[in-house]
Every structure is written in C-alpha cells, then in structure tokens.
Amino acid sequence: VRLVESGGGSVQPGGSLRLSCAASGFTFAAANMGWARQAPGKGLEWIAGITPGSGNVEYADSVKGRFRIFRDNSKATVYLQLDSLQPAGTAMYYCVKALQNVAPRGQGTLVTVSA
Predict the structure, then answer these.
(1) How far apart are CA 102 and CA 11, in angstroms?
(2) Vertex 111 angle, CA 109 and 113, to 5°
(3) Are strands 17-24 and 2-6 parallel, antiparallel or unpaired?
C-alpha cells in the first residue's frame, strides 16, 4: 500500500485548498478510502470516508458541510476539498485506506491556516 498526499500549503482564514492522494499497490477501485488529520499537540482525528463507487460518503461532525471527499478511480486518486478553512483546520492531513479509520495512511500533507 502506497499513499502519497499533496496539495497542502498555507491559506488565510476563509480560504480553500484541495488535497490529493495518489494510491498504488492495491486495487484502488475496490477500496474504501478516507482522510484523517492531526492538529499540533493533538491526536489523530478521522474526518472523511468514501466507499469504492462513491455511493456512500461520511464525515466527522467537525468538518461536515465544509469539506468534501471525492475520488477518481480511473486515476487511483482520492481528493479532499477544504472550504471555509479556519485556524482550527491547521493540521497534517493524511490519506487513509479505510472508511472510518486512521490506518493505513500516507506521510501526510501540511495545511496551515493563519492570517
């Protein structure tokens, strides 16, 4: 299993980012996928998951309505659209090969939200 995240960066409050995760080493189109994050000094938090055919998506209450998970099975890539970012969204964001778990995961991409 190899998961490589990209798309992180610095953004002002209210801004948006789109994270990508390129997957390899398994049958992506048959796999549940998700995202988790870890804010500075805090534990890992699962935030979103999506089933293989995108028929079911789930979100943690902390991001519901502001983040959107979607996937492109032809590219073996899962995305996380982050909108209306606030400083509390500052974290390392991880791609996860699971629907509602935090492992296995990639190395992460850092998102920093500050004025």
Answers:
(1) 25
(2) 175
(3) antiparallel
- 3-class DSSP state of 112: strand
Closest CA to 49 of 94, 5, 87, 89: 94
C-beta of residue 99 within 8 angstroms of C-beta of residue 34? yes
> What is d(CA 64, CA 9) in angstroms, rounded to the nearest whole number?
21
Per-position pLDDT tens, the chain of length 115: 999 999 999 999 999 999 999 999 999 999 999 999 999 999 999 999 999 999 899 999 999 999 999 999 999 999 999 999 999 999 999 999 999 999 999 999 999 999 9
Report the C-alpha gap between 73 and 49 in whole angstroms. 15
Burial class (CB in 10 A: 0-12, 13-18, 19+), 63: buried
Cis peptide before 104 (omega within 30 of 0): yes
